[in-house]
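General statements about sequence and structure are easier to judge against a single worked case. No coordinates are needed to read the tokens, only the vocabulary itself. The sequence in question and its structure tokens are set out directly beneath this paragraph.
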Amino acid sequence: MKRISILFAIALLAVGGIFAQTKGSTMYVAVKTTSLKSSTWFFALSLKPALTYGTAVKILNVNGKWVEVQSISPQVSGWIQTANLTSKRITATSSSTSASAKEIALAGKGFSEEVENTYKSENTNLDYNLVDEMEKIVIPDELLKNFINEGRLKGDEGGK
């Protein structure tokens, strides 16, 4: 019975996500930063500026796993993957405390400094400095595109 209840809850969440992404509805960026694209292709031109966690966007069109959006502020439109959006409104609860976009994004996923410290104390053999270094690595889209093309991998555009 418990398994059926869990499956039912997951199904409701999935259906809720589909209905939330309808034309004219408002959603919010659920990742630290994301680029709007000029089309529904991963390597499409990235539009400026990038959107940050909590930015409100209006849904203009839905195309599979891509959604065309228009941000309220700054006012810019383009395509974004649905996985980068949430229907939950993201707001700060305290004006006296400042937090980085990274901290806010982690908090939205259930992490906090307390949770991180507890995990570190229970897993003392892990080196978290390496994770920080890996997060700093940025690979330009053009290099990724060349890698896919040279390897004849199939991407959004079939490895063209």
Observations:
- The CA atoms of residues 56 and 146 lie 33 Å apart.
- DSSP finds five helices and seven strands in the chain.
- The chain has a mean pLDDT of 77.
